[in-house]
Amino acid sequence: MSASDQSEGISALLASNKSWATQIAQNEPKYFENLSKGQSPRFLWIGCSDSRCPETTILGCKPGDVFVHRNIANVVPATDLSSLSAIEFSVVYLKVQHVVLCGHTGCGGVKGALDNKKLGKIDTWLQPLRQLRLRHAEELDKLSDVEKQQRLVELNVQQGVETLRQNPDIIDAVNSRGLQVHGVVFDLASGELKSVDTSEENTATERRYAAFRTA
User: What are phi and psi of 150, to 5 degrees?
Assistant: First the structure.
């Protein structure tokens, strides 16, 4: 790509932004003034970095509505400082009311975890997905390639929700003010979000609270 092509690319983005900002300001003259005063989002959204899954767009929301953390394949490692920082800031300080973990169909990270191809540095990041694959091998091996990928997407969301529920900041917020944790999958073919079953018995909740709560 030539330097002129690159310049035209960023110029197009800047022009699009200018048009968007102008339209918003015309419709809501105080919008950006109010936005600049601070944020009070109701949701923490943890999703995939995939360019086809822009949370604000697919939720029909505006800037300021959703606090966002995204990474490849929406993996939630218990020791990842980036996700832990986003969780702490949004849950403890912004006091979001909901944490939403979103996977999506056609996820390249999930496909990579199933393909057994050496990918480089990303192999380390996808290790939790490969561990999920191993843990559920008996179930996954009975499925077609498409079904297997879809099921691993769901399993990844379920595992991520469980990891989130083990986070001390989330445990405190659930018990003190009713924070809710949800799992969903974005269907690229329809544009719709579908809930993932993350229900559990009360005994599981009590045991996790006893094991992971800190004071």
Answer: -65, -40
What confidence category does residue 20 fall into, taking pLDDT thresholds of 50, 70 and 90? very high
Helix and strand numbers (H, E) in the chain are 11, 5
> Each residue of 125-168: pLDDT tens digit?
999 999 999 999 999 999 999 999 999 999 999 999 999 999 99
Please work out, in degrees rounded to the nearest 5, the angle formed at the alpha carbon of residue 95 by the alpha carbons of 50 and 59. 35
Out of 104, 133, 165, 169, pick the active-site residue.
104
Nearest to 38 by CA among 68, 63, 71, 7: 63
207 is catalytic: no
Q: Catalytic: 98? A: no
Residue among 120, 148, 143, 212 nearest 175 (CA): 212
CA–CA dist 77, 82 (Å, integer) = 10
Query: Is 104 an annotated catalytic residue?
Result: yes
Residue found by looking up tokens 């900002």 in the block: 21
Q: What is the pTM of this model?
A: 0.93
Rounded CA gap, 180 and 183, in Å? 10
61 in catalytic set? no
